[in-house]
TrEMBL record:
Organism: Candidatus Enterococcus testudinis
Protein name: RsmD family RNA methyltransferase
Keyword Transferase attributed: yes
UniProt cross-references to Pfam families, sorted A to Z: Cons_hypoth95
GO biological process: rRNA methylation
Gene3D superfamilies in the record: Vaccinia Virus protein VP39 (3.40.50.150)
Length: 184
């Protein structure tokens, strides 16, 4: 696994051992950013099920200003920190050890707002629609924010979730990538 492009492009990233995580492949990561545009015009990123931190690091490498990486696993947090160290710019990242529910509550209390949201939950625990609805209710997504969901192909996400409108969807092997834009 590596950083595909941008300022940190080509640098190697570590991934977690075992079957508990499913890191986004370089091919899928490259495809996601081809759909978003090769480079991001700044903005704040939230990677809610960060795993190795690869998506958040890729986003910062391609121009995002800051990324928040959230994961509930200590081994994942350690790998995320090691991978962030590869960038030599740790100030561009915040790492939080907590589950998605507590993270959403924390961001709501702090009135944070994000321009890019990556949701790549473990396949067995898909709660994407509920989490997005909660985040929209709390105004955690800016107008025009892009939400990138990576799911198993058996998961069918709706074309619209409140103010989120699906703008792209592609399948890559057993993975499906769905991108929404916040219209409010």
């Amino acid at each position: 696994m590596r950083i595909v492009a941008g300022e940190f492009g080509g640098r190697k990233l570590k991934s977690l051992a075992g079957d508990n995580t499913r890191p986004t492949t370089d091919k899928v990561k490259g495809a996601i950013f081809n759909m978003l545009g090769q480079y991001l015009p700044g903005g704040r990123v939230l990677d809610l099920f960060s795993g190795s931190g690869g998506l958040a690091i890729e986003a910062v490498s391609r121009g995002a200003d800051h990324a928040v990486c959230v994961d509930r696993s200590f081994p994942a947090i350690n790998i995320i920190r090691e991978n962030i160290a590869v960038t030599k710019q740790p100030e561009k990242f915040t790492v939080l050890k907590m589950d998605a529910k507590h993270a959403i509550a924390k961001f709501t209390d702090e009135a944070q707002c994000f321009d890019y949201l990556f949701l790549d939950p473990p396949y067995a625990k898909q709660q994407i629609v509920d989490q997005l609805t909660e985040m929209l209710s709390a105004d955690l997504l800016s107008k025009g924010a892009k939400v990138i969901c990576e799911t198993d192909i058996s998961i069918h996400l709706p074309e619209q979730i409140a103010s989120l409108v699906q703008i792209k969807q592609q399948t890559y092997g057993i993975s499906q990538v769905t991108i929404y834009r916040n219209e409010e």
